[in-house]
UniProtKB/TrEMBL annotation:
Pfam families, per the entry: NAD_binding_11 (PF14833), NAD_binding_2 (PF03446)
Family that this chain belongs to: Belongs to the HIBADH-related family.
InterPro entries the UniProt entry points to: 6-PGluconate_DH-like_C_sf, 6PGD_dom2, 6PGDH_NADP-bd, HIBADH-like_NADP-bd, HIBADH-related, NAD(P)-bd_dom_sf
Protein name: NAD-binding protein
Length: 301
């Protein structure tokens, strides 16, 4: 069991690890440092990312094994299940290993459950706790976090997760947090597809696009996607590259389609949206904010 102390400054508080300090992870980790009653150790292969966390009070580690040696609970924010599996193998294979690994990435459900079973054999509990909402929510600590864990683990982790999210939902057992997150994103992408089509039809029929969206927001078509994402991107026709790109949307929707296949469920609407996203990528908008899909809907792609 890890969680060993190194000096009195580590002895009187819990020690948490955080691996993966990208766009979301760096902000989540910053809130964990500021708001938790814990010491935080971090690792990221990008030295500047780890340096930024150190400025806030974290201790930098040289690799995942060093994090495992010091921290009893380790949080991950990584690009995909492939990186999660690799890092978890490093953590569980270290001479000292954490008691709990919390995967806050968006990961494949089946592989998450299989990974949890492998880690359990090594005496390590895997909790899936993926996050939803935008970058600003990560900055503000107002993410939605859906957690797959048993009740005692959820109760233990909730105070730390609440440093990063304003809505921390116990989704059930292992993998259920990922199910919730994946389906949240699936519905979001389908909603954006519908809004792109509505805007294209409305403009072709002579209606002002901004007025259309303002009016839809007053009725039963209202949604977060309409009021925030679609209005901010589709109306000004701006799809920046340093936002949630089409390639990421494809990755997340692929997880939903895989889950549907695993459960034997036909999902034609989600499949159509995947086709639209893939055509958006192939048209050269893979790194642009995914609402760029409207360019394919209105024929500009």
């Amino acid at each position: 069991m890890s969680g060993s102390t190194e000096g009195s400054n580590m002895a009187d508080k819990p020690v948490l690890g955080f691996i993966g300090l990208g766009v979301m992870g760096s902000r989540m980790c910053a809130n964990l440092i500021r708001r938790s009653d814990a010491n935080v150790v971090v690792y990221d292969p990008v030295a500047e990312a780890a340096d930024a966390a150190a400025v806030l009070g974290a201790r930098k580690c040289g690799d995942a094994a060093e994090v495992a040696r010091i921290a009893e609970i380790v949080f991950l924010s990584l690009p995909s299940i492939r990186e999660v599996e690799t890092v978890c193998a490093d953590l569980a294979g270290a001479p000292d290993r954490p008691r709990i690994i919390v995967d806050m990435s968006t990961s494949d459900v089946g592989r998450t459950r299989a990974l949890a079973a492998r880690l359990k054999d090594r005496g390590v509990a895997l909790v899936d706790a993926p996050v939803a909402r935008l970058r600003q929510a990560a900055e503000d600590g107002t993410l939605l976090i859906t957690v797959g864990a048993d009740e005692p683990l959820f109760a233990e982790l909730k105070p730390f997760l609440s440093c990063m999210g304003s809505d921390v939902v116990h989704a059930g057992g292992t993998g259920n947090g990922q199910v919730m997150k994946i389906l949240n994103n699936m519905v979001l992408f389908l909603n954006m597809n519908a809004l792109a089509e509505a805007l294209t039809i409305g403009r072709a029929a002579g209606v002002d696009g901004a007025l259309l969206f303002e009016t839809l927001a007053l009725g039963s078509a209202d949604s977060f996607a309409l009021r925030r994402t679609a209005t901010a991107t589709m109306i000004p026709d701006e799809f920046p590259v340093r936002a949630f790109p089409t390639n990421y949307a494809i990755k997340d929707l692929a997880l939903a389609l895989q889950l549907a296949r695993d459960e034997g469920i036909d999902v034609p609407a989600a499949s159509q949206t995947m086709d639209l996203l893939e055509r958006t990528r192939d048209a050269g908008y893979g790194e642009n904010y995914y609402p760029a899909m409207i360019k394919l809907v209105d024929g500009r792609g």
